[in-house]
User: Fold this.
Amino acid sequence: MGLSELIEPERVEPSPSRRRPSGLDGKRLLITGVITHNSIAFAVAERAQLEGAEVILSGFGRTRRMTERAAKRLPLTPDVLELDATNEDDLKSLSGRIAKRWDRLDGVLHAIAYAPADALGGEFLTTPADSAAQAFITSAFSMKSLAASLAPLMAPGSAIVGLDFDATIAWPVYDWMGVAKAAFESVNRYLCRDLGPLGIRSNLVSAGPIETAAASGIPGFGKLGDEWQRRAPLGWQQTDPGPVADAVCFLLSDASRAVSGEILHVDGGFHAVALSSATNL
Ligand SMILES: NC(=O)c1ccc[n+]([C@@H]2O[C@H](COP(=O)([O-])OP(=O)(O)OC[C@H]3O[C@@H](n4cnc5c(N)ncnc54)[C@H](O)[C@@H]3O)[C@@H](O)[C@H]2O)c1
Assistant:
């Protein structure tokens, strides 16, 4: 072997798993949960399209027209499918309706939450069982429903991502939605278990507070955002869903191909600290 070969070794092509995956180019994604252009899901759809993904949105009932209006504000106006995530008929027909447009689905965003008014806002001890159950079915069980209905269209390498609010502790006013989010975190782990053998990933992004329609329905949520801004080591902008959307796009992309059952906190570091660093002790 000559000296030049030692100095300039022959280049080896990286193996497929070592090649850097390229964003969401060519991915086909179902994005639920867009109701206004302030929805976190809207920011995800926008970024995904800018990264080269094809997107379908879902909306339901009387608010579907709002979803259609928001869809027109995206770089490319996507189709909007009817999907009430608690409706058996909608869920049963969903994969067929997507299959009419696409031969496969590469990713799904679950951005769905609802709790009746008496399950939120400090009514924890008096909330009726029906209201707590409704919060659970719409906000947690629906991730299983969506996954089960779409898995037959999803090939190995595809991904499901959900939007979470840290459920490891009790919050003011969040009440039974907090309990539903705890279930949601558990559903994510079971989906990781059951869909992993099919090569499908399941992950959550645990977001800090963002000003959206759902958030404005929770009394006192604005004050929580102010506290967040003070305490998060990186600071926090509750008007900017961009960092959350970027993390979702990462989890939908091949860059996260070995990540499943994870909860990625996108909250300015809030979850990791007990007090504001400005606290005088
Ligand atoms: N905004 C925040 O501060 C924040 C923080 C962490 C997590 N999240 C989560 O993000 C997700 C999206 O919420 P958002 O804050 O963007 O608010 P949003 O109001 O824009 O979105 C909530 C969506 O849930 C949908 N939805 C409710 N019931 C449904 C049903 N039965 N079937 C189908 N869709 C249904 C609504 O149509 C709406 O599009 C929720 O899971 C929420 O808990 C929000």
The CA atoms of residues 36 and 70 lie 5 Å apart. The mean pLDDT is 94. Residues 32-36, 39-41, 60, 63, 83-86, 111-114, 138, 163-165, 207, 209-210, 212-215 surround nicotinamide-adenine-dinucleotide (CB under 6 Å). The domain at 23-272 is CATH 3.40.50.720 (Rossmann fold).
